[in-house]
Design goal:
alpha+beta; 7 helices
């Protein structure tokens, strides 16, 4: 069997096994994401796996660069990758995605035991920054219109909520007759 035939067979198997499973996502026929743990689980992580052309004879590319994994420290990511690499080495030459995903699920606690959430730079530094914008928002509050005012506004506008063209134009002839035109002198 060629590598492409092996990949096609494994792809079919993965699709049938993980059909309807929200943890498994097929990005392309050779690229997958697998979430280990529940969304609410603080120790959950996402594996990004890509098959090279010669997979399963060569190891798949595994990374933890998904945005979901930003709270995981670099050391923990490195530990997970090294443990997964050991599993890849043991299964080289055969279909291994199911084995890898299930192994990661079973060993999630061990893989994430040293996990300490990383504090990102998005956190606010003081409470004064939080209160100032909210006070500004309160001042920007729109004035309340009565039902009659809303009705008049709707009657003046078209179906898109726009006023008709020239609604505020001055009648040019009436204006010129009052102000006079150019001096003929």
């Amino acid at each position: 069997m060629t590598a492409n035939e092996d990949q096609e067979m494994e792809l079919e198997a993965l699709r049938s096994i993980y059909e309807g499973d929200e943890c498994f996502k097929e990005i392309s026929p050779v690229s997958f994401q697998f979430r280990v743990g529940d969304l609410e689980d603080r120790k959950a992580f996402i594996l990004d796996v890509t098959w090279p052309d010669t997979y399963p004879e060569t190891a798949p590319q595994i990374c933890l660069d998904a945005f979901f994994n930003n709270r995981i420290s670099a050391e923990t990511k490195q530990l997970i990758l090294s443990k997964l690499e050991e599993q890849v080495e043991a299964n080289l030459g055969s279909a291994m995605m199911y084995t890898l995903f299930e192994w990661a699920k079973e060993n999630q606690e061990a893989l994430m035991e040293s996990h300490r959430p990383v504090v990102t730079a998005v956190t606010l530094t003081s409470n004064t920054e939080v209160t100032a914008p909210s006070a500004a928002k309160k001042r920007e509050k729109k004035e309340q219109l009565t039902k009659a005012q809303k009705r008049r506004m709707i009657n003046r506008t078209d179906n898109k909520g726009e006023l008709p063209r020239g609604w505020n134009w001055v009648d040019v002839i009436k204006h010129l007759s009052r102000t006079g035109g150019k001096d003929d002198d």
